[in-house]
Amino acid sequence: MRVLLIESDHTSAVNVVHIMKSAGFTVDHTSSGQEAIEMLRHYDYDLAILELMLEDIEGYEVIRRARSAKIDTPILVLSGLTRSQAKIKALSVGADDYMIKPFDTGELTARMQAILRRSRGFSNAQLNIGPLAIDLNSKSASVHDLPLNLTGKEYAILELLALRRGNVLTKDAFLNHLYGGIDEPEMKIIDVFICKLRRKLQQKGADNLIKTVWGRGYVLREDEKETTISSPIEQNTFLVVP
To answer: Its Gene Ontology molecular function terms (predicted)?
Structure first.
């Protein structure tokens, strides 16, 4: 999952970035509230972590402007402000959760995962799509209770597809999610990852979960409501019928 950290204190930012990367998140960081709003406008983040005390504008204003612009990215406030009024104000202007510094590393990770699940409509840490089971906490997956041996990038792709099940994801979205705009490889690498992921799913008995939508991208579906077509180039492909 891709996270935006909005934190003006360098030491705190380094600490939080390390925690999130260790938990498997892709992280972008900015110390500016103004820049954060623009980044939220132009990039697809799964979660934003926000300090209220910024150098240019208050964190409350970042939340207000984001919500006014119809940006629905979940926002977790992680702040040194301990008074209850700060928490109430942050939640009232559109924050999804509030944690106080210093914080417990495990609790931060657990809250981030909980917010991500709720934002995608899931109530617990395990996602089940047909024979496929994904554990968001352990970052693992299995098919028919048989573990899948996935690389980090393969798991990240499968997790993103599962959390956005039913939504077509473009190759740009995958590149953005995996690399965050830094040292991105050519777009065809996504086809390679998807091919390897499909092969591993198939070997465990899960065929046809990942579909190709021609000209758009990939989607994870438990069942096929679309008209399936055959292609000599790509199997598991469907054409969306108006």
So the answer is: phosphorelay response regulator activity; transcription cis-regulatory region binding
Nearest to 132 by CA among 146, 121, 115, 151: 146
Of the chain, the end-to-end C-alpha distance in Å amounts to 31
Buried b (16+ CB within 10 A) or exposed e, 158-195: bbbbbbebeeebebebbbbbbebeeeeeeeebbeebbe
Q: Do 60 and 89 touch, CB atoms closer than 8 A?
A: yes
- Range 2-120 has CATH code 3.40.50.2300: yes
* Structure-block tokens of residue 131: 């024979």
Neighbours of 155 (CB within 10 A): 17
Q: CATH topology for 126-220? A: Arc Repressor Mutant, subunit A (1.10.10)
User: pTM for the full model?
Assistant: 0.65
**76 DSSP assignment:** E
